């Protein structure tokens, strides 16, 4: 029997974007307040999983043609590269740098090198979560 | 370079991430993986010479002050282990190129090996007990991937056991760390070494010390926690088995050695006595297994357990001879176990079986291989001047100088059983009536044999040139016996 998933699909089309926006918010909220790359990545992955549930895996693969293993590797490399920058400046590994900048619209903003590291974490989390879920999901 | 201690950890990680980008390109996978290991080896050598000339290297991550940030500490002991584990990984990598099979190579075999290396080197280097947990998890994740790699039926069956045992021991590990933190208020190993002697509640600390012994004992395969090892290690292909046998249990042994010399020294009458008794029981249990089986893999696997017992007995004595012996024997054991597994691997390829009773008469066709095997076997048993001898001699001496002369007697007696167990392989496989062998072409054989033979040659150098290596070993022992060297390096920047 084919289930009627019009409701799910219609809701998903809206909810996915809300989740993605929230993921971005959580991602940038990190560092001083709870949040960061890990949670942001999990939220993003959950948005993609919701899409996969509402539609099906081939459709989602068509609209998001991402190789999640490569995504994980790229994330890892970004994270390691950020951490390794400390080697060039000859300070202990993982030492971060930050400063305050006056940006248009945002006003006084503090920018961290930790953000780059978090982008790496974000990509790794999305990549790993999606690889796991896809592998399990496709087995049927 | 303040970050030098981190290079052997970060380099394989970078190469592993790069390798994940193009899993299907066989030639690139091999080249990049070898480049990764060779670079790591170079960095480990530089680190070794730095530690040798300037003493203990410590760096606390993120520029936090020492007890609060995560410290990475390279003393002579840890750098010797990093160096030997990198050498072992390199030769196993060379050996796995002709043996592991294209299908495995194309499904993330090399990244997994490099991740394993990251975890192992990290565990040897870290100076923070929770960070040790993290690195052990890293190497366990990689080992989970490797143990199921290829997905053959016995692998899947054994990996479930392996996973369960390790998840339980990891859960215990976190609880033990939590107990330790609630009693001492710190997790930095150097800081622990300062704080623990000031705490009067020796009882609870002893409980925590024993809990850590159980946790690390699972990883190190001590009696009676080794039950998972013979089955799990039996399943994966030989190259992976060689990596596991040479490196994974040694991380557990290292962790016991580090914690039981650096800070769990408040009640040695109980904890180290217990360690000595368990070590002897481990040796005996291992001997039973090594003699009971007719399967070459099983025989060598049980020899891992024996070696763990010998090393831990040396450390339980807490005197210069015992500790130095343990360090020497640990380095020797990493090299010789990898060499033996690779040799046995070639045997199983030639005969197409790992059952001793179906082997025989190989010495006529492969004389060089036969004698190399005999040298490795003698090295394992500790016949002078091979590499097993100096370590075992010092451990036995440590036992006689300490309170456990009976333990030394057991070690001496069981050396004969170890010799018997490996010489049995030699007699069955190389002497007697020639059994049916598979024809393998010369090039394939050499590509397996050459890395193995070099590894055996290295152990011979280690044994015959023991005099050359002893200064490094006693340097390493010095830090273990005299924790203030370690503490000062970390806490006084």
TrEMBL record, chain A:
Boundaries of every Na+/H+ antiporter MnhB subunit-related protein domain copy: 7-131
This protein's GO CC annotations: plasma membrane
Parts of the chain that traverse the membrane: 12-32, 38-57, 69-94, 114-133
Topology relative to the membrane: Multi-pass membrane protein
Keywords assigned: Cell membrane, Membrane, Transmembrane, Transmembrane helix
Keyword Flavoprotein: no
Pfam families per UniProt: MnhB
Location of this chain's protein in the cell: Cell membrane
Annotated family: Belongs to the CPA3 antiporters (TC 2.A.63) subunit B family.
Protein name: Na(+)/H(+) antiporter subunit B
Organism: Planococcus maitriensis
Lineage: Bacteria, Bacillati, Bacillota, Bacilli, Bacillales
TrEMBL record, chain B:
InterPro entries from the UniProt entry: CPA3_Na-H_Antiporter_D, NADH_UbQ_OxRdtase, ND/Mrp_TM
Residue ranges crossing the lipid bilayer per the database entry: 6-23, 30-48, 68-95, 107-124, 130-150, 162-181, 201-228, 274-294, 301-322, 334-354, 366-386, 406-431, 452-473
GO term, biological process aspect, one: ATP synthesis coupled electron transport
GO cellular component, as recorded: plasma membrane
Residues covered by the NADH:quinone oxidoreductase/Mrp antiporter transmembrane domain: 128-416
Membrane topology: Multi-pass membrane protein
UniProt xrefs under PANTHER family: NA(+)_H(+) ANTIPORTER SUBUNIT D1 (PTHR42703:SF1), NADH DEHYDROGENASE (PTHR42703)
Protein name: Na+/H+ antiporter subunit D
Organism: Planococcus maitriensis
């Amino acid at each position: 029997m084919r289930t009627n998933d019009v409701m799910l699909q219609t809701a998903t089309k809206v909810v996915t974007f809300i989740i993605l926006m929230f993921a971005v918010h959580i991602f940038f909220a990190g560092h001083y307040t709870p949040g960061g790359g890990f949670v942001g990545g999990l939220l993003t992955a959950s948005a993609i999983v919701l899409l996969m549930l509402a539609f099906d895996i081939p459709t989602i693969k068509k609209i998001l043609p991402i190789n999640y293993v490569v995504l994980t590797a790229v994330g890892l490399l970004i994270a390691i590269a950020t951490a390794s920058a400390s080697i060039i400046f000859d300070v202990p590994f993982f030492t971060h740098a930050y400063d305050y900048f006056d940006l248009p619209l945002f006003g006084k903003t503090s920018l961290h090198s930790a953000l780059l590291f978090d982008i790496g974490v974000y990509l790794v989390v999305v990549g790993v979560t999606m690889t796991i879920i896809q592998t399990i999901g496709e087995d049927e | 370079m303040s970050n030098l201690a981190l290079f052997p950890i970060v380099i394989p990680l970078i190469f592993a991430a790069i390798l994940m980008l193009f899993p299907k390109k066989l030639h690139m996978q091999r080249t990049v993986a070898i480049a990764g290991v060779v670079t790591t080896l170079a960095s480990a050598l530089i680190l070794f010479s730095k530690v040798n000339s300037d003493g203990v290297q410590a760096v606390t991550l993120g520029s936090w002050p020492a007890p609060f940030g995560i410290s990475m500490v390279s003393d002579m002991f840890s750098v010797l282990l990093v160096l030997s584990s990198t050498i072992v990984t390199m030769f196993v990598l060379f050996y796995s190129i002709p043996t592991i099979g294209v299908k495995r190579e194309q499904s993330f075999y090399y990244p997994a090996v490099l991740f394993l290396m990251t975890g192992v080197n990290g565990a040897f280097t870290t100076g923070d007990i929770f960070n040790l947990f993290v690195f052990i998890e890293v190497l366990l994740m990689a080992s989970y991937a490797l143990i199921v790699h290829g997905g053959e039926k016995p692998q899947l069956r054994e990996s479930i056991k392996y996973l369960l045992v390790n998840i339980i021991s990891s859960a215990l590990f976190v609880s033990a760390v939590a107990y330790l933190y609630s009693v001492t208020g710190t997790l930095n190993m150097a800081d622990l070494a300062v704080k623990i002697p000031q705490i009067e509640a020796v009882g609870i600390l002893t409980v925590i010390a024993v809990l850590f012994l159980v946790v690390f004992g699972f990883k190190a395969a001590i009696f009676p926690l080794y039950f998972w090892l013979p089955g799990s290690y039996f399943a994966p292909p030989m190259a992976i088995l060689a990596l596991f046998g040479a490196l994974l249990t040694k991380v557990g042994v290292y962790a016991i050695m580090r914690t039981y010399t650096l800070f769990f020294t408040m009640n040695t009458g109980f904890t180290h006595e217990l360690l000595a008794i368990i070590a002897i029981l481990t040796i005996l249990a291992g001997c039973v297994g090594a003699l009971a089986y007719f399967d070459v893999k099983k025989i060598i696997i049980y020899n891992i357990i024996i070696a763990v017992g010998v090393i831990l007995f040396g450390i339980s004595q807490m005197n210069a001879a015992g500790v130095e012996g343990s360090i020497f024997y640990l380095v020797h054991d990493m090299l010789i176990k990898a060499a033996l597994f690779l040799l046995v691997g070639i045997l199983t390829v030639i005969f197409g079986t790992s059952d001793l009773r179906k082997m025989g008469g190989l010495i006529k066709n492969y004389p060089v291989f036969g004698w190399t095997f005999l040298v490795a076997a003698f090295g394992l048993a500790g016949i002078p001047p091979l590499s097993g001898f100096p370590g075992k001699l010092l451990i036995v001496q440590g036992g006689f100088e300490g309170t456990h002369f009976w333990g030394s007697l057991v070690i001496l007696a069981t050396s004969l059983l170890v010799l018997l167990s490996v010489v049995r392989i030699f007699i069955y496989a190389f002497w007697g009536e020639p059994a049916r062998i598979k024809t393998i072409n010369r090039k394939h054989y050499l590509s397996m044999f050459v890395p193995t033979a070099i590894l055996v040659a290295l152990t011979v150098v280690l044994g015959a040139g023991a005099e050359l290596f002893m200064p490094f070993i006693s340097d390493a022992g010095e830090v273990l016996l005299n924790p203030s060297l370690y503490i000062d390096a970390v806490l006084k920047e």
